[in-house]
Amino acid sequence: MERLKESGGDRVMAWFAELGDSSTWSKHRFDPNVCNDSNTSNFVESFNSTLGIDRCRPVLTLLEGIRRVCMVRISTRYQNALGWKDDELCPKIMKALKDISKDTISCKAYMSKPGENEIHEGKSHFPLSLNNKICSCGAWKISGIPCRHAIRAMVHAKIDPHTVVSAWYSVRTYKQSYSHHINPIPDKEQWPAYAHLSIIIPPTLKRGV
């Protein structure tokens, strides 16, 4: 932030101030309890694309399309997870952990006492605590997945990295997340009739030039 201020002056700092609290846009201020190192609207764009033609239809039809997409997605993910073991990590996290482990080749661990290490990576030094699950790089605390520095220390201490990943990424938690299903409903021609409901008139449209 200091370098940005030197380059852009007060105008740049004012622009950052208008973005709101830095916990919504600066990774180092993310809530570690959430265990998520990404805060973007990409998932909204993906979901919007999934709705397809329903986006252009009346609101009731749109809502029915959203309900149907969610119903199928929840059921499919729960069905896929039935073959996974509850005590293991989700396959995507297992792959991420494997990829992170490949990057530990550039790290070297120096133990100060059991569970406390100093990790050297090039010219950088990172104090790391296996006891508190904290690395000074911040990645482990924010994501809930051990960073390459932590895995280097775990290899040195003969600790399985899979055992220290946040419980949010376990198969058991995944199954709980998708255990509540959406029930199917009939089409509107089969809905019960109500005589005293108010009629909502479509909005007035103005003809374009």
UniProtKB/TrEMBL annotation:
Keywords: Metal-binding, Zinc, Zinc-finger. It comes from the Eukaryota. Residues 126-158 form the SWIM-type domain. The keyword Metal-binding applies. This is SWIM-type domain-containing protein. One of its GO terms (molecular function) is zinc ion binding. InterPro entries: Znf_PMZ, Znf_SWIM. Pfam families: SWIM (PF04434).
